[in-house]
Amino acid sequence: MSQDTTLPPLAASSRILPATTYDAILLAGFGGPEGQDDVIPYLRNVTRGRGIPDERLEEVAHHYRHFGGISPINDQNRALKAALEAEIAERGLGLPVYWGNRFWAPYFADALRELHADGHRKVLVLVTTAFSSYSGCRAYREDLATALAETGLEGELELHKVRQYFDHPGFVTPNVAAVRSGLHQLVESDSGAQPHVLFATHSIPTAAADLSGPREARPDGTAVPTGGENEWHAGGGWYVEQQRAVAALIMDAVGDEFPGVDWSLVFQSRSGAPEVPWLEPDINDAIEALPESVTGVVISPIGFVSDHMEVAWDLDNEALETCAERGLAAVRVPTVGIDPAFVAGLVDLVEERHVAREGDSPRERVALTALGPWQDVCPTDCCLGRAPKPTVASA
Ligand SMILES: CC1=C(CCC(=O)O)c2cc3nc(cc4[nH]c(cc5[nH]c(cc1n2)c(C)c5CCC(=O)O)c(CCC(=O)O)c4C)C(CCC(=O)O)=C3C
Ligand SMILES: [Fe+2]
């Protein structure tokens, strides 16, 4: 995999924390419903205060209802927790793993009470999202701060967070393997296939994309790109920038066997009012607009770490149907899930921050793009596009 040398590294050195000895790990997830009766209360939790139209809630409720009201995400996080425990035990790190969610039980507050009751005071949080955005980073940090306040554990529990890991080998390597295997599947079923790789990620409002990550522009003074193709905005824009960089890295890595395959970064699961601009193109529009020469697509859900409802519904149901209507062969490849390389990578990230004894050397920080290694703590206005709330893990 080559490094992207066109982008100077983020000036993050002041946002790197010295390694220390932690008491426990908190796996911080999104949460999902686990039965029909959970669906509406869950959707109300997710959309609280956001003005998501009721029709949209009904539409999303239907996705969950179709699967018995059960999102796969909680079981996926239970499996990830177990895999992390096994890897941590194997390395003798002596860190118990707790699990809490933003939007469904066990909630962050439940996990914090449990951590505290078990005598832990210094906790390293692992978030189940790889990229920088309000929804993928700041919202987790805000909700953890809210849970600290709600439980009265401010000043009792110290919460630090592992950096966003979009360009860590633990995240990139399984995605490379998945895209490679998807391309093999297409070519095996049709030796003359002209494939196109679609990297799918969650759409967010373009305003939130512009404000994602720290505010600085590239050190050469040019703005960071975001939004539509070749559209440039001042300010942040790291959400799109990070995903483009990882997609380019993956395509570069599979280029040994599949040179010159076209790819694009596309967006899914848009919500909110129609007049508010969100990142485009939508994956279904992108499929419709593929050139006639393309005969097959590989869909890589790069924006997610497990095959949860957004993947099961928006990709396996809708996007694959759009491909079928266009007569395109299509393979949706898996997210990192509990791939051993991903689990090992997360524990490597823990070991950048955690040492068995104060003074021991932490693990070296690795990153496969010039954007990283990403910051351990965020500046106070990182991903901030609304009224500020207290956060954890900020500078
Ligand atoms: C960037 C991003 C990620 C990736 C980072 C991360 O993983 O955190 C993500 C993940 C997820 N999003 C999920 C589910 C939902 N997201 C919604 C709404 C929204 N997501 C947004 C963004 C993101 N979302 C945004 C800007 C909104 C609009 C409302 C708002 O500003 O908050 C809604 C409301 C209804 C709707 O409008 O769709 C639901 C139900 C699930 C669980 C799936 C399951 O249950 O298996 C997961 C993992
Ligand atoms: Fe979402």
Structure description:
The protein has 395 residues and is of the alpha/beta class. The protein has two domains: 171 residues, Rossmann fold (3-Layer(aba) Sandwich); 164 residues, Rossmann fold. The protein is 37% helix and 11% strand. It is built from eleven helices and eight strands. The strands form two sheets. A four-stranded parallel beta sheet has the order 2-1-3-4, with helices on both faces. Helix 5 links the parallel strand 3 and strand 4. It is globular, with a radius of gyration of 20 Å. The N terminus is likely disordered. The structure holds coproporphyrin III and fe (ii) ion. Coproporphyrin III (HT9) binds next to helix 1, helix 2, helix 5 and helix 10. Keywords: Cytoplasm, Heme biosynthesis, Iron, Lyase, Metal-binding, Porphyrin biosynthesis. It is found in: Cytoplasm. Its EC number is 4.99.1.9.
